[in-house]
Each structure stands twice: as structure tokens, then as C-alpha cells.
Design brief:
Layout: E1 2-5, H1 11-21, H2 28-37, E2 43-47, H3 66-69, E3 71-73, E4 80-82, E5 93-102, E6 114-122, H4 131-147, E7 151-157, H5 161-170, E8 174-179, E9 189-195
Parallel strand pairs: 6-7
Antiparallel strand pairs: 1-2, 2-5, 3-4, 5-6, 7-9, 8-9
The protein binds acetyl coenzyme *A.
Length: 200
């Protein structure tokens, strides 16, 4: 598995992985906004192996495979569009991503520069191998080095034990507050923050 910067050619696969792994989904233009505005900050994990993927219901090699990545599913309109194959990187399967931005909320212009983790996920077969931790560490490093981010924030579901463990125990984020009914289904979120130090 290779960790590398996400490019505009990855966003269809990132959206596919997100649709598989999380109920919080975004329009393709929101992925583009991240990758084009802060091209150094988002990362993908890719694999060239063809190991059996337990999310693969089609028998074709998993949610991040080339065939899937040629299908652009717009979660808003419900339309499914077949793309030109030059949109995907041949032979590579996307197994994880972290989608990251700087906070550009005009209401917070007086704040120190700070980053935000919009979405992180790893395909089921590839979990518990340290991939999410690596993706996050790369993103945190880039936010600090490239964008001078002083801290980074994110939201996570209260019931999401794996992610909470990763953020709080492995990456040492602190819980800032509980945001009631943050998610569309009414679940509360932990708002989390990590100060980015120079020596990490
Ligand atoms: N139970 C408890 N702790 C876990 C679990 C788990 N199932 N999975 C990961 N962790 C914690 C552990 O502390 C682990 O360290 P350890 O291996 O030393 O015990 C640490 O996280 C790092 O684990 P990784 O192997 O790097 O994590 P992984 O690659 O498996 O990905 C992730 C974790 C992203 C949460 C994955 O389970 C996933 O994709 N889940 C579905 C999507 C999701 O919930 N994404 C996060 C939403 S919040 C947001 O996007 C801002």
C-alpha cells in the first residue's frame, strides 16, 4: 500500500470510497474544491494488489477498483455517468483517503490559520493496518508545513469507536465540545482539535 498526495484524478475513487464507508457524502465539486484549493493537504492510500475485497459484491475487485471509478455516481441527482477511462490511474486501487482543507470560513478571519479534516475512510479489508494513522499524519504535517496551520479540527460521531480511538488515543486530539444533533440522523458529534506543534 502506497500513501501519496491526492490529485484531481483521484476524486472519483475518493467519492466512491466515501459512499461505501460513510453516510456523510459530498458532491464531486466539493472534492474538487479541496484538492484544487489545497493540493498538498489531502492524501490517498493505493494498492496494486488484487486481494479479495469483502466489500466487493460484483466479484470485480472492490469499491476502489478501476471499473467502479469509471462510474460517477452523483449522490444528489442520483445520476450515474460512465467516465472516460483516462480519469483513473491504471492498475491502482484506492483503499483509503483523507480529505482535508484549511478553514476558510469568512466569519473566522481573526482566528489563527487552522485546518479541518472533512472526511477519512479506509476500505474494510485494509483496516487495522495503520493506513488511517499514516494518512492523518501526512495530512497534519502538510497542513502545518505548507499552510502554517496552528491547529486542526474535525467532527466524529459519538458512536464511532474506531475513529474516536484513532483521533483521541493514537493522534492525541482533544474533545472540545459535544455538538448536539450535528448529523442528519440526529446523532451528536464530538468536536475535536489538535494543536500542531513544530517538533512532531
Ligand atoms: N477499534 C478500536 N480502535 C481502532 C479500531 C477499532 N475497530 N480501528 C482503528 N482503531 C484505532 C486504534 O487506536 C489503532 O491503533 P492500534 O492499531 O495501535 O490499536 C488506530 O486507530 C490506528 O488504526 P489504523 O489501522 O490506522 O486505522 P484504520 O486504517 O483501520 O482506519 C478508520 C480507521 C478510518 C476509522 C476506519 O475504521 C474506517 O474507515 N471507518 C469507517 C469510516 C469512518 O468512520 N471514518 C471516520 C469518520 S470521522 C471523519 O471523517 C472526520
Amino acid at each position: 500500500v502506497t500513501i501519496r498526495r491526492a490529485t484531481i484524478n483521484d476524486i472519483i475513487c475518493m467519492q466512491n470510497a466515501n459512499l461505501h464507508n460513510l453516510p456523510e457524502n459530498y458532491m464531486i465539486k466539493y472534492y474538487m474544491y479541496h484538492v484544487l484549493s489545497w493540493p498538498e493537504a489531502s492524501f490517498v492510500a493505493t494498492s496494486t494488489s488484487n486481494v479479495f475485497d469483502d466489500e466487493d459484491t460484483t466479484g470485480q475487485g472492490g469499491a476502489g477498483n478501476e471499473e467502479d471509478c469509471l462510474m460517477f455516481n452523483d449522490p444528489i441527482s442520483g445520476n450515474s455517468i460512465k467516465l472516460d477511462p483516462t480519469y483513473v490511474n491504471p492498475g491502482e486501487k484506492l483503499v483509503g483517503y483523507v480529505l482535508v482543507k484549511m478553514n476558510d470560513d469568512p466569519d473566522q478571519q481573526n482566528e489563527e490559520p487552522n485546518g479541518h479534516v472533512t472526511s477519512l475512510s479506509v476500505m474494510r479489508t485494509y483496516r487495522r493496518m495503520g493506513i488511517a494513522e499514516k494518512l492523518m499524519r501526512q495530512a497534519l504535517f502538510a497542513l502545518r508545513e505548507v499552510h502554517d496551520a496552528k491547529y486542526v479540527s474535525l467532527h466524529v460521531r459519538q458512536s464511532n469507536r474506531a475513529a474516536l480511538h484513532l483521533y483521541r488515543d493514537t493522534l492525541e486530539f482533544e474533545v472540545l465540545s459535544i455538538e448536539k444533533s450535528y448529523y442528519q440522523d440526529g446523532e451528536d458529534a464530538y468536536a475535536m482539535k489538535k494543536v500542531l506543534k513544530l517538533d512532531e
